[in-house]
Design goal:
- The chain is mainly α.
- It has a single domain, classed as Amino acid/polyamine transporter I (Up-down Bundle).
- It is 76% helix and 0% strand.
- The chain contains 14 helices and no strands.
- It has helices at 2-25, 33-55, 63-68, 73-106, 112-127, 131-157, 164-171, 180-187, 196-203, 214-238, 245-250, 263-297, 303-324, 327-361.
- Helix 1 (2-25) runs antiparallel to helix 8 (180-187), helix 2 runs parallel beside helix 14 and helix 9 packs across helix 12 (263-297).
- It is globular and about 65 Å long.
- The two termini are 22 Å apart.
Length: 365
């Protein structure tokens, strides 16, 4: 089961490439993007280490049971109310970006709400399953997605039209200080580890903090490609003008001897599958936390009724978000949420380590 911990983190990092990372890094390539990438590596690695070390002391327990080990009822409920919607919000933002790309590049003629119904139906059906089933499906996707993604990366930098001079110009701005939003979006590549709050029961303690060096190495590669590929193809002046710079860059590449000539089609398929899988994982975590809140803390007895109501609320959220929030406001909301998420993650890691410390002192673990 140890390998699934890496899958959860990497699927989040891969799906972040287009939705958030490219939109924030590329326009700010001279305003601290490189330094933000560098700063995110030790921060993300350290926070994963302390999170996993604390969680390993509670094998097979869910978030509600962990909180019960050291906190009073009122504090447990307050903390769960704060954290339950966190993964759901991330999933809505990811789903909204996926729908925008589908409407823009895949099928502009189809109704936005019809696409929304199809995606939400798939996600709702998927999260109402066992956690192990989601993990097994995730492993299958990883085996197909990663080789295809590496092919796109290699094809990108070996193309004769890729400008290394434009990349070197960006490197000359390496010491520009990044903004808070840049630090937030680069550290989001590591945020998949928080999904373990819901999957900890499925792991039952069968994961550890070994091989953590893989996280900064792989995520560094993802982030550098995300920044430099659009700049290498679209230029330092042209890349920031694109709404989806990575997709525009992928459309610059072709496979002359392939069945599918344009790389864009391959990359769109990779991205859409990855994003939907990541939304499923995020919403599953939020779904499980809401069930723990209502069933374990509020002591509601009707499990089926609670489950149906949570799923209905989950399904309604994206329609409300899409109908009331215009495109320009979505990026602002994402910016605010990514910055707030950093504070929530730091608080979560500190909280888990505090509970582990208190439980160990009382001899409960």
């Amino acid at each position: 089961m140890r390998r699934y911990f890496f899958y959860i983190v990497f699927i989040n990092s891969i799906s972040n490439i287009i939705i958030f990372l490219a939109k924030f890094l590329v326009p700010n390539h001279t305003k601290g993007a490189l330094l933000a990438i560098i700063f995110s590596l030790p921060f993300g690695t350290v926070i994963i280490y302390f999170f996993s070390r604390a969680l390993m002391m509670f094998p097979g327990k869910n978030f509600s049971e962990i909180l019960e080990a050291a906190l009073p009822y009122w504090l447990r409920v307050t903390i769960m109310i704060i954290f339950c919607p966190a993964w759901y919000i991330s999933g809505i933002l990811m789903l909204s970006g996926t729908i925008d790309i589908t409407v823009t590049f895949v099928d502009p003629q189809t109704s936005l709400y019809l696409i929304l119904v199809a995606y939400i139906g798939l996600v709702i059906f998927s999260i109402n399953t066992k956690g192990t089933s989601i993990l097994y499906a995730l492993e299958i996707f990883i085996f197909f997605i990663v080789p295809a993604l590496m092919f796109v990366f290699i094809k990108a930098i070996t193309n004769q039209f890729f400008s290394w001079d434009a990349c070197m110009e960006t490197v000359t701005h390496s010491f520009a200080l990044p903004s808070i939003s840049l630090l937030a979006v680069t550290t989001y590549n590591f945020s998949g580890y928080t999904d373990m709050l819901a999957f900890n029961r499925d792991f039952n303690g069968r994961f550890d903090s070994k091989h953590l060096w893989l996280f900064p190495v792989v995520i560094l590669i993802f982030q550098l490609f995300t920044l430099f590929v659009p700049i290498g193809y679209l230029g330092t002046e042209g890349a920031p003008d694109f709404n989806f710079p990575w997709l525009a860059s992928a459309d610059c590449m072709v496979i002359k001897t392939g069945i599918i000539e344009r790389i864009l089609f391959i990359y769109l398929l990779i991205y859409l599958v990855t994003s939907l899988v990541n939304v499923i994982v995020h919403w599953y975590v939020s779904f499980e936390l809401f069930k723990e809140l209502f069933l374990d803390q509020f002591k509601m007895k009707n499990v089926k009724a609670v489950t149906r109501r949570i799923l209905c609320a989950f399904a309604a959220g994206p329609f409300i978000f899409t109908f009331f929030i215009i495109q320009e406001k979505k990026l602002v909301i994402a910016n605010i949420w990514l910055s707030l998420r950093v504070l929530l993650e730091v608080f979560l890691v500190v909280l888990l380590n505090y509970i582990a410390y208190k439980s160990k002192r009382k001899g409960r673990i």
